[in-house]
Amino acid sequence: MNGIVFGKYLPLNSPIHKVDPRAKIIALFILIASIFVPKSWWCYLFLGIIIFSVVLISKIKISMILKALKPTTFMLLFLLIINCLTIKTGEIWFYIFSYPIYKTAILNTLFIVVRILLMIMITTTLTATTKPLDLTLGIESLLSPLKIIHFPYHEIAMMISIALRFIPTIIEETMRIMNSQKSRGVDFEEGKLREKINAILSLIIPLFTVAFQRAFELADAMEARGYVPDKERTRYHQLIFTFKDLMFVIGSLVILGLMIASRFYL
Amino acid sequence: MCYSNTFSKVVYNRIVMSFIEVKDLCFSYVEDNLVLDNLSFNIEKGTYTCIIGHNGSGKSTLAKLIAGLLEAKSGSIKIDGLEVNATNIHSIRSKLGIVFQNPDNQFIGSTVRDDIAFGLENKQIKREEMDDIINKYAKEVGVLDFLDKEPTALSGGQKQRVAIAGVLAMNPEIIIFDEATSMLDPKGKSDIKKLMSLLSDTKKYTIISITHDIEEVLLSDNCLVLNKGKVYAYSKAKDVFNNAEELRKIDLDIPFSLKVKEAFNKQHIKLKSNDLEGMAKELWQLTSNH
Amino acid sequence: MAINFKSLTYIYDEGMPYAHKALDDINLSLIEGKITAIIGQTGSGKSTLVEHLNALLLPSFGSLEILDRTIVAKQKNTGLKALRKEVGLVFQFSEYQLFEETILKDVAFGPKNYGASEQEAIQKAKEALKLVGIEEKYYDISPLDVSGGQKRRIAIAGILALEPKILVLDEPTAGLDPKGASEMINIFINLNKQKNTTIIIVSHDNEMVYNFADNTVLMDHGKVIFNGLTLDLFNNKELSDKYNLLKPKIVLFKELLTKNGFKIDPNIRTIEELSKYLAKEINKK
User: Fold this and answer.
1) Do B20 and B174 meet the contact criterion of CB atoms below 8 Å apart?
2) Number of domains comprising chain A
3) The whole model's pTM is what?
């Protein structure tokens, strides 16, 4: 459980933590868009410096970014091999066992690596600096215009926040059921396929049973406290979009603008 | 049956109009298997009533029916003259709060503060007023120090206190405790029971507690004994154990002090006191009198 | 024969910044063939202790001797699955482990995991269900369609079907009504008497512990404070006051009587014994 860093909130105190989640979500999309615009390496150096500074300001450790990147290494390696096998244009750079490797293949792969690295840096910064609950509130608020087409944005946000609230509880439950079944001789690590399937069933079925029971009880508790899904509610957590947040969004728009301009002038 | 009638009639006839009136209530989950069978009883405003009965006697079902979480098959429940039904459900719920059995499955917010706020949001309380209300009730139940804690960092007893704060913040007239202490450790149990007693002493709330804890009955005003979906006995709490044999017939326990009294009775020693301290003194006096 | 904890320490998330020492240098000997209760406040390490008994947790330091095998910290321990058959562990709210289509199949699940044939497993399941008082008419019902108390008994049968030499139960009566709880306890007493099964129970219910546990272990903050006869623990006023033991009512009553001047036989356990004893005292004078 401790190995997963992607999407983990870090309870630190940085200027980025204080930015309104909506501003952060919008900026995320704008910056991801800007990553895919430019063609010049200079632009990537520029984007890299900007995004790296944001990471530094958020007080996220570089090791955390590297850990988040780890799961992608296999994919990138695969991509490199595919590119080397398929791209056969331009200058030949070197040979591996007399197999020609083209410069374009390497550069194309590198391009993708840089883009993915930047994307992971941006998304990790968002999730590491924004409480899951605030993120939900932000998404809810951004989706709220969709109410004209009767999109149930509030229900969806409520579902996400309850899911987030119950993740630790369900993990605890999973551990307990696993231990119960281990005590009945279930081996979760080894065994033939049939035994493995049985082992998983012995975990999944009770887990679902308990989760449903929890869901029903939770529904009763919510209803008893006056919750009606489509009724208007006031909000305890209110997001306040300040001038600073606006500047944050404008800043990212400027970057996007610069990147678009680079296509014409560089 | 005669046992039940004598008790319920005493309470019945005295009252003209009760705060909670249950009349001929029937309920079943599956056809032909009545969980509640023609149940009738009244509860007065500001009282603390325990509902006891072994598992499957219909206690929890009754609580859900009163709160309008289930719909009766026949018969009626009136709260403050208002019938519990689909049309009135929102006005009924604004008068009533429930503390459920499982501390985890009623913790909705991601922190204590958020959880108390949940009901306030539903009630459309203005944001500016929320903090004061949250602080007031968090203090009342003793969770003020961990308003920003997440549920995983709290003990069962603390979570139940948060649930009580969440209910109190809604300013209810009736609070139902549905086996609210049964999943707690001894410390949690005694903390919550003390809190319930305190709430009862304010006389602001009508309290209904569904419980297995026979000792809790001694803290309450009235006690309703359910058996097989019927009222088995209904009386002042202190009188309900007068007929211990009747309770044993339906597998209910009796308080320790009564067991002591019974045991000495068998040895032909009649004790007058009802509490252990008094009994100990009486016994000592018996030795010195001889 | 005994179960021996030797300087056993257990640390959750060892090496992490939020590491937490749940058991602190435990030296403890539990006698086989007895009913032993393990008591202590929430977080005192009771559950961590018993999860060592069937090697769900392995010691961080020290060792555990159980049923002619020794589990040593930081060593490769093999054959743990076999140990789990001999030391049956029933978790808190064990009814959540039920998952097969019928009650009989669910109870037979354990024996099958240990290589019993279908027939043998069913036979063992039937015996186990009999021990916990589940009648034959329930065999083909889904375990999810019976009452909470019955589910708990079926879950316990699921472990009993393994025919463990040592049965460990974490809060087996939590959430049951008084009648269900006392029936449950009688199952354990019978097992202990008839099959000489060692019973180890983690419990918060001191009334129950006082009534039927031969020995009691008191834990506090990951340490063993007391290990000995149940009566000795509760008769020890100093110790029970220091650790805020919730005293059984009969003990409180005995203390009240002593305060008034009576001399009470410390071996008295029930109200019946007490009333007879006092009646004699009173009539003597």
Assistant:
1) yes
2) 2
3) 0.86
